[in-house]
Amino acid sequence: MIESSANAVVSLLIVGALTIVAMLTKSGLSRIGLPSLIGFLALGLLIRVADDRWDLFSQADFEILSFVGKVGLVTLLFRVGLESHLAGLLSQLKRASLIWVADVLVSAALGYVVALYLLGLGKTSSLVVATAFTATSVGISVAVWQELKALQSPNGELLIDIAELDAISAIILMALLFALLPQLTAGGLSSVDSAAIVGVQAGLFLLKLIGFGTFCFLFSVWVEKPATSYLRKLEPTPDPMLTVVGIGFMIAAMAEWLGFSMAIGAFFAGLIFSRDRETVKMESSFMPIYELFSPFFFIFIGLQMNPAALGAALKPGIILALAAICAKLVADGLPV
After folding, report:
1. Which secondary structure element, helix H or strand E, spans residue 300, and what is its range?
2. What is the pLDDT of residues 117-134, one digit of tens each?
3. Residues in contact with 312: Cβ distance below 8 Å, sequence separation at least 6, in sequence order
4. Is the peptide bond before 238 cis (omega within 30 degrees of 0)?
């Protein structure tokens, strides 16, 4: 009991200290016009370097930082969804779909060719790289666009649509790939078996996606407005918005449980409530939560980097980064 209490004290000190440093970092970088997430990522990497050298943090500390980082991701995407205009996103969807198809095809093809022929990673590893190339990090992307105040523009809506489509398709492709990997590694998979596995996995994912989308639609149409109207009458500010955030967290958790991601779930949760202008007006009550937790998403990304592997990973990392940049410029830039 005493040891558990001591661990809680240390973890609380860590979270408190990181909050202070994150706010100071954000203030300093904003003065020189740099995105704050650069500082948060660097802060996470510095913590990892310090821990590798002096063994500062326990496994429990890392688990707490991981949890707080996930809360940061959910708050980030929930705010993006809440501030989005659903009509604007839908109006850009046709154009975004064309760019998305080009993005997936070009990025996957270039990633596979570079990994197989330039880096010599082998066919299975190259398939993993190709699948990873199709994704767009929604959290990092929208954070940059948000700081530039570009999300409310037509281009911002287009970029959100593409990023979300990329995220959904990447999850589907990665799930299919992981289902095939054991057989691919063993080398005993026929084309019929491959088609059967892909068909089953794709069918299950599609059913879950339809179910989740239907739930979000019905909640938005039939439940959201009566519920938030009742909460505004029942609770004083800021309680209604905090209750809405709690619902958003639960929807994000549901999406993760179904195999999508917390980021997608949080974005859809924000979209559910974005239709109600009165709820959006209450956003100021949510901002302290957002400012507190969102930096931890980027800090934890930096914390997951392995400094010992950076040297060996530098050359292939640069090659893959350049290939990814070229793929996005060609696949997204030409259709636009």
Report:
1. helix 287-303
2. 999 998 889 999 999 999
3. none
4. yes
